[in-house]
Design brief:
single chain, 422 residues, alpha/beta, Urease, subunit C, domain 1, TIM Barrel, 2 domains, eight-stranded mixed beta sheet, six-stranded parallel beta sheet, globular, binds zinc ion
């Protein structure tokens, strides 16, 4: 017989309605939610879970995680991680995410050299390891020297750097057609392009492009032929416009957004995961934290600070379909997804818009909205509980009090300040 739970909620945010509804109950049978309402009839032997003191939400989803960067100081040392170490680091991050109320994470194209990231996802899906479920973009596709090409750290030594460059980095239509097919063959859930340079790795900066039109088009076309969505790391409007024209499914960052490009996003209903967190410190003028980045990153962040601020307002005032993703690979840890909540709240995004982004909107971006992202009969029982005030408290997601994934209850953990590794 399936194990059943009746969860009594203090207040319920169901992932869809902009409301915290009091006195609701959720019936869970096996891995699924079977009923939601007041005074539900109780099956025999049901396990009652009393969360009257908490606000209950769907399990949160972080749509932009780099799980193998276990300490921020390791962004250059990642080059020397073995595939085994990196794969285990993903499991560690996914476990930490789960105990903080994030039941699903989307891993954004910085897996280990091989396909250990796919193994990590599969081990979790089989229930062999207690962790957040992973949606995987196994590797980044782009040109040599792009952000995330960690062999850049060895580029004073050409043979060494060439040896360390991962297989999905290269040039030309045939190369990328083949790489997309390989990624899909070995189990990726989506394709991740690195188009522009970045703020956080030692490349030419956010306005540089690492792929040409032909390469972009063949990647998107081949992925779509194989039924897989494509997203891209991108900053400048001219590159975003190009990707919109080529029919990409969505984009990451977009932190140099302008009005015209925002309108194009709205028109095509293309999603953007704006990853506010990595730019929050520079936007707020929090020099202590900006100074923790490499000198190269500090310089880029400060140079673009006015445009980052302006772009944040354009994104806030737009109707773009926004996903919630933290993108930690520098000062913060990859499982500190709550910090993205703070970043959205401090950017006046509004609590419900933020909560929907982290639940039902993200589920759609992951193409998993038939399974997760809301508390409705038929969905997987991914449920979290929080004692802090989700509507007013910017740090409310830093303390999770209850987490269930697929009908199973898991331990929770608060953030420990020591772990910030600052
Ligand atoms: Zn990223």
């Amino acid at each position: 017989m399936k194990k059943s739970h009746l969860i009594i909620c203090g207040r319920l945010f169901d992932g869809i309605h902009e409301d915290l509804t009091p006195d609701m109950e959720i019936l869970v049978e096996g891995s699924r939610i079977t009923a939601v309402g007041r005074n539900l009839s109780r099956p025999k032997d049901v396990n009652v879970i009393d969360l009257k003191h908490l606000t209950v939400t769907p399990g949160m989803i972080d749509a932009h995680v780099h799980g193998n960067l276990m300490r921020w100081q390791e962004t250059d040392n990642i080059l020397f991680q073995s595939e085994g170490y990196s794969t285990l680091a993903f499991l560690h991050t996914a476990e930490r995410c789960l105990e903080r109320g994030f039941t699903t994470i989307r891993c954004n194209g910085m897996g280990p050299a091989g396909y250990g990231i796919v193994d990590a996802r599969n081990v979790i899906d089989k229930g062999l390891f207690p962790a957040a479920r992973m949606n995987v973009g196994a590797h980044m596709l782009g040109g040599p020297g792009m952000p995330g090409d960690m062999s850049m750290y060895a580029c004073t030594n050409e043979p060494l750097s060439d040896y360390m460059q991962i297989k999905t980095i290269g040039s030309g239509r045939d190369f990328f057609r083949n790489q997309v097919r390989r990624e899909v063959k070995y189990g990726t859930d989506f394709i991740k392009i690195f188009l522009s340079g970045s703020f956080l790795s030692p490349d030419g900066g956010p306005e540089i492009s690492y792929l040409d039109d032909e390469e972009l088009q063949i990647i998107i076309q081949t992925a779509h032929d194989l039924g897989k969505p494509v997203t891209a790391h991108v900053y400048p409007p001219r590159m975003m416009k190009k990707l919109l024209e080529f029919g990409i499914d969505g984009m990451e960052h977009g932190a140099l957004m302008d009005e015209e490009t925002a309108k194009m996003f709205e028109k095509q209903d293309t999603y953007l995961v704006p990853t506010f967190s990595p730019f929050q410190d520079v936007i707020e003028g929090n020099d202590n934290l900006v100074d923790k980045n490499t000198e190269d990153s500090q310089m880029k962040l400060r140079k673009f600070a006015p445009r980052l601020k302006e772009s944040r307002q354009i994104i806030r005032d737009s109707k773009i379909r926004l996903g919630f993703g933290s993108d930690f690979c520098a000062v913060h840890q990859p499982y500190e997804s709550w910090y993205e909540y703070r970043s959205w709240m401090r950017s006046d995004m509004g609590a419900f818009r933020t909560l929907k982004a982290a639940t039902s909107v993200n589920a759609g971006i992951l193409k998993m909205d038939h399974l997760i992202g809301s508390i409705e009969p038929g969905k997987l029982a991914d449920i979290a509980g929080w004692h802090r005030d989700l509507l007013d408290d910017c740090d409310a997601l830093s303390e999770c009090d209850f987490v269930m994934k697929g009908g199973r209850v898991y331990p929770t953990a608060d953030i420990v300040v020591d772990e910030y590794a600052r």
